[in-house]
Every structure is written in C-alpha cells, then in structure tokens.
Amino acid sequence: MGGRIQKVIKCQNCGADIEELVPRCPYCGAMNEPGAEHKYMQDLYKLKGDLEDLGDMPQEEISDEVKIHAKFTGKAFGVIALIVLLLVGIFLFLRFSGDLIWKAHEVITHTRSADAREQMQWERKYFPQLDTWYEEENYEAIQNFFNETDEAADGIQYNYSNWEHWGLMAFYDPWRECMDLWNRVKNGGETYFYEFQSALYDALTMSYDRELFPMKNEKDCEQADAWIADADVFVKEVYDMDEQEIQDLKAKAEKDGFLDYKVIYQYVEENKSEM
User: Which residues contact 177 (CB under 8 A, 6 or more apart)?
Assistant: First the structure.
C-alpha cells in the first residue's frame, strides 16, 4: 500500500507551501506545530515498542547483558582504584621509607632506639671515655666501641653521631682495612680476592666521603686527609695504578655523587693478574 498523501499547508513563518506533517519548514527552518507534534507521537510509539520488545527478551539474556556491563564497569573501577592505591603507596614509601626500614630492622634484630632520656644518660656515661681515647689517638678503641654499640647487645640502639669527633671515625675503618691488606701483601700473608675488591672501593670512596662527614676542628681535618693520602698510595702500590688511571676509574664508576661498587669490583676482576 502506498504512503499517505499529506495535505499541503502554508508555512506560518515564510508562507511557502509545505506538507502538513513535516516537523520544520524546509525553506526557512521554522517549526511546523502539526508536524512537530506528529513526530513527537511517532517517537513516543517507537519507544513504547522498544520497551515491549525488551519485555519479550528472555530474563537470562537481560541478566547476561547487565552482567557484562557491570563486569566492565567493575574492572574499570578496579583499575582506577589500583592506580590510586599505587600512587598513594609510592608517596607513603618515599615519605616514610626510612622510618619503615629502621622499624623493620628493630623487629628483626629485637632492638629498639633509645628514648631521649636513655640517650642522654648514655652520652654522659660514655662520651668522656671517647674523649680520652681521642686525646690518646687510640682510634682502634673508639672503633671497637662503635662496633659494640652497633650490635646493641642490651637490646637498645644508642646513637654515637652526637659525639664531637664522630665524622673523623668514618675514615678510620676503611683506612684500617686498606692498611691491613697492604701489610699482608707486603709480608706475604694470606689474602682473599674479595678483600682486594672491598679495599679498592673503600680507598676510592674516602675522598668522596670527605664532604659528607662534618669535622669541627683542624686536627680532625688533617687526620682525615692523612688517612686519605695513605689510601691513595695504597691503591697505586697494590693495584699498580697511576693517578690518571685512578681518576679514570672514578669517573667511570661515579653515579649521582657516589661510586658504583659494581664498576670497581669489575675492574679488580679484570685486572687481578696484575695484583
């Protein structure tokens, strides 16, 4: 059957002849009220038909559709939540990682940091003895005391970095290691390969550490510089390196203001036949 022949009417805006049921005048674009109403009713009946078709759809199919959309929405929300949690975790780690690592250390070693009162009493008891050893230049006794303190045998971790000459002692232990190895090399004593790796790393890093540890008097500065000079001679003698080779190795190993131990260890591995 053919379509319905529409009545021709005049556009109320421009006066052109238009079909009765067009929603807008094709010439001026003005709304045609009878046509707009007709289109509205057609759209309404179409929506009603879609809803009736949905009512005929099996319940299982509707549930499957809902589940698919819900599953997708759930996954998207989960991914967003995971990203947010990851960012928060990174922030918290960067903010509190030092404290967390130290707390983990305390749990593993069954120790705790001294509180303010305990720390003060400990300093009053032991700092005078440290001062005496310092005046006697008995650095070995000081280092042994530091090592015992680090072990925290009584379960309490005390902090000796408040001692006036603490910065100087940061150079004594690596210097002692280098000198001990050098003496055994010169005297034909027993040595181990890993000692050559560790000692070279310690010797080269001493000059880098010079600016990291504060020293409050000229005596400490002079002593630290003397130990660094000894370590420099040790490197040249034991590893058969000249100044240029030392500087080249430092430049190769330097990373963010420090020396990468892996580069130095690899150097010893590659040149062990010369030692």
Answer: 198, 199, 202
Total of domains in the chain? 4
| pLDDT exceeds 70 at position 64 | no
What would the pLDDT profile of 212-230 be if each residue is shown by its tens digit? Answer: 887 889 999 999 999 999 9
Asked whether residue 73 carries a pLDDT value surpassing 60, the answer given is no
Whether 219 and 275 share a structural domain: yes
Whether residue 65 lies inside any domain: the answer is no
Residues 198 and 270 in one domain: yes
Whole-prediction pTM: 0.59
Query: Which range has the worst mean pLDDT, 93-107, 155-169, 173-187, 208-222?
Result: 93-107
- 123 and 213 co-located in one domain: no
